[in-house]
Amino acid sequence: MRYETIQELMDKAREAEGKTFGEIDTTGRIKNVRSKGSLGHIIEESHFGYQINSDARPDFEELGIELKVTPFKKNKNGTYSSKERLVLNMIDYHNEHEYSFETSSFLSKATSMLIMLYQYEPNIPIDDYRIYKAFLNEFSEEDLDVMRQDWETIVAKIKRGEAHLISEADTMYLSACTKGANGSVVRSQPFSEQPAKPRAFSLKASYMSGLVRQYLTPELMESIANHGELKEMSIEELLEAKLAPHYGKTVLELCEETSIPYNPGNKAMIPRVMAKLFGVRKTDLSSIEEFAKANIKFKTIAREPDGKIREHLSFGKVDFDDLSRDEWEESDLYDTFAEQKYLFLVFRYDEEYVPKQKRIPRFEGIRLWNMPLETVDGELKSMWLEAKHIVHTGVKLTPSGKRVKNNLPGPKFNQVAHVRSKGADGQDKVKLPDGQWITKQSFWLDRNYIQQILDA
């Protein structure tokens, strides 16, 4: 069927709101659904009445509009988020670098998208999944400014012969996600003999979560950027401009300046201070639009007077059942570093460390960082595989005084990442797959590795 106007198309799209895929399906395709992509085919075929095709032209060619059917989920705290990234089109390494952003394959596919949101629920049949919202998405000028920088970052790696080193964490909103049946699938790139994984342009799951919340809830996210600022500078430069006037101030001074009670035992204190310095009302940094869409998480780092770091940095608990079951690229640890960026808030003490002596550090600066792909698939992966192997063969628990040692990969394993306990006390334990009990463990980045990042 041909749709003559956008209004006609949107009227038809909104007729699907509230209906299940089982109610929409008229061909019986729902009985043979093997992948989420088939749900989009049901909408194309049964609701809009056009033949499924795989060519590069927009789905509604006469209007220049692409159709995307994508899932969201309701979180335990009642908020909504996207269940996955929105994959757009394959990147042709041999051609993409010849385009400008305005003529890029990404923009030709994504300038106008009819997005239909359905709710993913793990314990109900697929044919009971329900369409909740249909909307026409056209990117804001501010988002396109960030995506332009993202596209240029990806293309710059292709031009340097580094398509094999592209990582989703390199960019903010627009990413290059891996595509292929398995990790052994590769393709050639134009400026290097090194084969690269096939990748597709996609909108990050975090960016899609921002869209989901925009259309499903009345709550508006706050932006730290004024109109036009992201055309002139990157998000990192914007963060630096906002915070640089406060470098050198102690945490106590920052608390007094922002009227936040000084309580070093309160983990929310620093985020609340930073939110005030950014000029936003909310106290949760993850609710800032740029942080949410770019999947930026923050970590506080304290340096000694000589610049050294005393503490390793923890990055999430070890779920031993998941560890024994997951493949590397499906693991939480892979997602933590292959897809996320980190804003390190760096503080420095004036006084040397003395046990039980309280010290108030000064705000030294920031560093926006993501782990390079060669480290993700190198040292990080080798540590994870070693931990997985030890869990499969049985963790050795050895009493040593009041403590119990284990043979999981520790701080000396590869100077990048390790496993170490992070329980409230020795009795804060979890059960291993073989039935043994072990103190809760977390994944950590080595303090010397963090120091190298900050010193680079």
Quick gist of this model?
The chain has 456 residues and is an alpha+beta fold.
Plain-language structure description:
The chain is α+β, with helices and mostly antiparallel strands and 456 residues long. The chain is 32% helix and 22% strand. It contains 16 helices and 19 strands. It has helices at 6-14, 21-24, 37-47, 93-96, 105-110, 141-159, 205-216, 229-232, 235-243, 251-258, 269-278, 289-294, 320-325, 332-338, 373-393, 447-455, and strands at residues 66-74, 80-82, 86-90, 113-119, 131-137, 174-178, 187-189, 192-196, 199-203, 296-303, 313-317, 341-348, 362-369, 397-400, 403-406, 417-421, 429-431, 437-439, 441-445. It has a four-stranded mixed beta sheet with strand order 2-1-4-5, with helices on both faces. A hairpin with a 5-residue loop joins strand 1 (66-74) and strand 2. Helix 10 (251-258) crosses helix 11 (269-278) and helix 14 runs antiparallel to helix 15. It is globular and about 75 Å long. It starts with 5 loop residues before the first helix and ends with a helix. The model has no long low-confidence stretch (mean pLDDT 92).
